Amino acid sequence: MECLNQFSKLFVLDIRNTMGLLFWGNFALATLVFTFRFSLFSKDNKTHLLIFGFSKIFQSFAWLAFFLRTDTATFNPINIIIPNTLVLTSYYLESIAMLMMVKDKSKKAYRIQTILLAIVLMCFYCAVWIKSKDNIRIALASLSIFILLIIPTLRFLTETRSSLFKKILGFNYIILLAVLTFRTIYPLFKTSTTLYSIDPAQKIIFLIIFLMMIISGVGYLLLLQEEKEIQIKKLLDDKDKFFSIIAHDLRSPFNGIIGLTELLLEKNHQLDAKETNEFVHLIHQSSKNAYSLLDNLLTWAQSQTGNLEFSPKKIQISPIIDKTMSLLVNIAKNKNISIQSEIINGEYAFADKNMLETVFRNLISNAIKFTKTNGEVKLSMTKENHQIVFSVQDNGIGIAAETITNLFAINHKNTTSGTNDETGTGLGLMLCKDFIEKHGGKIWVESEIGKGSNFKFTIPNPI
């Protein structure tokens, strides 16, 4: 203990001044976070910063409330409940901000954190109601913060392909959790412990919390900046892919149109009606291919730059299917392919209507393209675990396993001619993936060579 007393002399601040330091530290971090928020263009990053910023505001006001509490001898429930509620809420918001940084985040994780907050608050309020001693309340508050932070911290450390910087930030929280563990146990063996007691251990704990707060705050901002740089690199890579598609694939149909029209002009008087009709048919097909590619390119570009509005609402599914099938019915007739929908009337989804139409149009169009004459395409849906699972199945040529691996990757060129030599770029599937992920769903394919393909995708079903 004497060694501890000597070591504590390194820290000249008393408990109240340390609380003041925690107030100004959190307030400064909140100011920095909200300033940072205006420099980050990503909507997701701005949401992260908003939640993280409010966690620091709540915490700064909590420490201010502790600092301003002058009468520490009299038991006053209001003076105890208000600052502790602010502290626990602030760490709950910080835990949510941490979970938003994890790649495989889910709504279930957020719900768990909310339930944990409700439980720890009720436990603390019960402790106040039965007038528990100061040391018991301190131990309970420390344990509550530990409970709120443990899951996000473990997710940070165990996340696959996590960056080194994220792991370092995770270890910072591990140190904080270790301090909280000590602060949970220590007061139980020292019954005279209060929040304002002149105790070297208490002072050191507060200063470690202050240090961890600074590291986590600055680290969180740097981590978001790192993610922004990764997003910029991805946009640059996507831009390169974008121009390569334009340079190669968009040139082909226009070369075909130009070549065919030149032949028509040169041999106009030498061609009979049947030959002329064949040329017109080829020009029409090339024009449709060029238009389809341009439409996907422009839609994809809008999506990548954030200019495409995402407006999900409750919509009926059958009209979307009917509209898509009517657009593609002539293409299907040319190959005598039947399109059947097993989706009954009266089924609803919470989705963006235009995006859902684009997804179905691309998937059904691909199914027709890679299905032989006299084949069939089936559409179906099921509801599983608060999600709607859609299926677009064909009995076409199928997809090789090595192709499936990179089917939805923009940095791989996936172009396979259809059963009637139809062309494509694979951009439609990337667009489908992007739109489905905006809804919080996922897309995948089950396929075997010669046995057809079954493209499936999910969207959340809150209805």
Automatic annotation (TrEMBL):
<keyword id="KW-0808">Transferase</keyword>
<protein>
    <recommendedName>
        <fullName>histidine kinase</fullName>
        <ecNumber>2.7.13.3</ecNumber>
    </recommendedName>
</protein>
<feature type="transmembrane region" description="Helical">
    <location>
        <begin position="80"/>
        <end position="102"/>
    </location>
</feature>
<dbReference type="InterPro" id="IPR036890">
    <property type="entry name" value="HATPase_C_sf"/>
</dbReference>
<feature type="transmembrane region" description="Helical">
    <location>
        <begin position="204"/>
        <end position="224"/>
    </location>
</feature>
<dbReference type="Pfam" id="PF00512">
    <property type="entry name" value="HisKA"/>
</dbReference>
<dbReference type="Pfam" id="PF02518">
    <property type="entry name" value="HATPase_c"/>
</dbReference>
<keyword id="KW-1133">Transmembrane helix</keyword>
<feature type="transmembrane region" description="Helical">
    <location>
        <begin position="169"/>
        <end position="189"/>
    </location>
</feature>
<feature type="domain" description="Histidine kinase">
    <location>
        <begin position="245"/>
        <end position="463"/>
    </location>
</feature>
<dbReference type="InterPro" id="IPR005467">
    <property type="entry name" value="His_kinase_dom"/>
</dbReference>
<dbReference type="InterPro" id="IPR003661">
    <property type="entry name" value="HisK_dim/P_dom"/>
</dbReference>
<dbReference type="InterPro" id="IPR004358">
    <property type="entry name" value="Sig_transdc_His_kin-like_C"/>
</dbReference>
<keyword id="KW-0472">Membrane</keyword>
<dbReference type="GO" id="GO:0016301">
    <property type="term" value="F:kinase activity"/>
</dbReference>
<dbReference type="InterPro" id="IPR036097">
    <property type="entry name" value="HisK_dim/P_sf"/>
</dbReference>
<dbReference type="InterPro" id="IPR003594">
    <property type="entry name" value="HATPase_dom"/>
</dbReference>
<keyword id="KW-0597">Phosphoprotein</keyword>
<feature type="transmembrane region" description="Helical">
    <location>
        <begin position="20"/>
        <end position="40"/>
    </location>
</feature>
<keyword id="KW-0418">Kinase</keyword>
<keyword id="KW-0812">Transmembrane</keyword>
<feature type="transmembrane region" description="Helical">
    <location>
        <begin position="136"/>
        <end position="157"/>
    </location>
</feature>
<feature type="transmembrane region" description="Helical">
    <location>
        <begin position="49"/>
        <end position="68"/>
    </location>
</feature>
<feature type="transmembrane region" description="Helical">
    <location>
        <begin position="114"/>
        <end position="130"/>
    </location>
</feature>
